[in-house]
């Protein structure tokens, strides 16, 4: 579920930006709000995930959802 929510949030933010570029402000805001909701659901799913014993395992588990912005 977490991956689905993250994917939907990502798609929604991109769609919102495209709509804003096309001057569709209201639709862009609605789309961004829905994307934000998906991101919230993603975070809630991540919080439900059990921790894996061992430093190496925890780091690998956590890095699955790390996003690098350049």
What report would you give on this structure?
There is one protein chain. The chain is an all-alpha fold and 70 residues long. It is 76% helix and 0% strand. The two termini are 27 Å apart. The mean pLDDT is 82.
Q: How big a fraction of the residues is strand?
A: under 5%
**Large-scale geometry:** elongated
Helix proportion: over 70%
Q: Separation of termini? A: 27 Å
Q: Helices and strands, in N-to-C order?
A: HHH
Overall number of strands: 0
Instruction: Report the major sheet.
Output: none
Calculate the mean pLDDT score and round it: 82
The number of helical segments is: 3
Could you say which structural class the secondary elements and strand pairing correspond to? Answer: mainly alpha
Query: Which oligomeric form is depicted?
Result: single chain
Whole-angstrom Rg: 15 Å
**Residue ranges: pLDDT <50 for 5 or more in a row?**
none
